[in-house]
Structures are given as C-alpha cells and as structure tokens.
Amino acid sequence: GDVLAVVDEASDGTFGEDPVLPGASPKMARLRALVERAAPDPASVLIIGETGTGKERLAKEIHRRSGRTGPFVALSCAELSPQLIESQLFGHERGAFTGASAAQPGLFVAAHGGTLFLDELGELPMDLQPKLLRVLQEGEVRPLGSVHGRKVDVRVVAATNRDLPVLVEAEQFRRDLYARLSLWELRLPPLRERRQDILSWARVLLGTWNRERGANATLTFQADAAERILLHGWLDNLRGLDRMVHRLASTDVARPIGLRSLVEAMPELVGPPPPERARTSLPPRTSAETPATDPPPARARPSREELLEVYAATGRSVRATAKHFARDRRQIYRWLESFGIPREPEPE
Fold first, then answer.
1. Within the chain, which residues score under 50 in pLDDT?
2. What number of other Cβ atoms are within 10 A of residue 73's Cβ?
3. Which residues pair with 4 in a beta bridge?
4. C-alpha separations of 3 from 6, 25, 223 in Å
C-alpha cells in the first residue's frame, strides 16, 4: 500500500532480550553470527565502525552474552589527558602525582570478572600502549607509584572509528597491541550500507524512546517519506536516526507522516547537498535537465547483493532504486534481469 509503518514492537530480525542488532541485511546477519561466536570467548574484541554506528551498544551485548559475572566498565580514550587515562586504567597510589590525595584502584580492577570497554582506542597515547599490552599479556595491573602488581581477570573490548592498520603502518599505533586486541574483529557497517535495516532500527529506537518516557508513540510513514528516510546518507548513523525518531515522536504530526512533515521536522532530509538554511517546504522536483541531487553522480554497476539490498529497502520500487543509483529506470530493469531478480509490478 501507500503506508510503511514503524511500530514499537521490535521482533523481526532481532536477537537477545534487548533488540541490539536488528536487521535483515546480509551484513547484519553475518555480524550477528560472529557476535555469537565471539561473545563467550575470553579473547579481546576490536569493534570498528563510523561515529554513531552503535559500537558501545554492541560492546554491551558482547558482555551480556559472554556469561561473565563482573561489571561492564567503559572509558573513552579521547576524553582524558594521557596521565589521567593512565591513572584511570591502572590506578594510582596516594601521592603518585600532584593531586593524588588517595589511592585509586583503577578501571581494570573495577572491571574484575567482567568487561572493560575502551572506546576511541585509536586516540590512546603511544607511551601507554605498551602498558596496556602488558596487562593483556600478563593479566596483571600495576598502579602508578606502586612496585607491586595485582592480578585481574578482565575481558577487553575496544572500539575505534579510525583505520588502525593505517596507523600501524604510520607507526602511530603499536603493531603488537593491534594484533593482541583484534583476535576478534567486528565491523559495524554504516546505515547507508544496510538501508533495508533503517526502519528496523527506527522501530528499536522508538521502543527505547517510549520506555524512557512511559509513552506509547507509533510512527507511520507515507511511501514518499519512507523512501526519503531509506535513501538519506545518515552520516551520523544511529545518532541522526535517533534524532529523527525523537522529533517525530515528540511533535504532533499528522499520521501517516508525509514528506512535507518529515522535512519540516528534519530539514537535513531535504537531500544533499545540504541546504544553506532549513527549508520547511517540499524540495523542488528535479527536471530531466537538472541532475538529481539524491543521490549524487551515477554509481557504478552494483553487485547482486547491493542491488538486492537497495531494491528491498525501497519496497521493491524500481523508481526509488533508479533514484538511489542515479540511473534511468530502464537500466535498473536490465540489472534486475541480468541478476535474475524477480520484478515487482510498478504502482502507477
């Protein structure tokens, strides 16, 4: 029909008590299978993904499924000075440095029996990297100002949005530490690589929004609004989608939500390039002479998997698929035929 609904019950394509990794895309199916194998294993895990893809959510799910009885403890390596990171991680004795008026055990000790999540690992200073490696190898932490080590049983899950192999080649990250941390390496794909999962994610985020407020909001979208959501670039990934869910669930917008209401709530969904100022009216339709702005230049011939993902994400609409690849509809028909993908009749 004309309406695509997003409800607050997340059941399809999810696993676990909390639907942390929803989606029917092949990439998410592979990731779920890998998480299932990695979670109960004591080896370190490295999560790689762009900002806002949900790396901490994934780390918490790995901890939940690990069977470890200790706590989940998190530290962002980008938010503290090198000295503070060192004392936070490894602890310090009283008087170890100016201002150290009392001894602190540190996060490795706090996470004993559980999981320590190190976010933005690529920002960890070079001089601290060998100390982290030593704890991973020996299972022993030595607080600042102390000559005695302390045994710890901690599973480390690290995350980064940086390309660590490139940093290793540039000698900005230790090769041995990278090798030790990446025994399990999980890549969280950005939303634009799993477009068919975007509405599943909106459903999950809406469920969270409702629980936090004791609310019962639902979101339904007209086809043109759903198409715009599916084809948007989502550069800040789940953070941007969460912002959309919050704005639409918080405002009294007529249901089902059409393109005009969607763009009024989320001006960034007008489509690239971003408008100089927020527009509240519908973007003008592009003529045959004007190059389409959503998305930019014509894309190379996709793989069968990529074409299937986009075709499914757009509700099997040839028109929307053609718009996504910035190609003529006839080209999409030829691709579908060459890959043996059955075609849906196009609505008028």
1. 1, 5, 7-18, 272-296, 348
2. 18
3. 221
4. 10, 22, 5
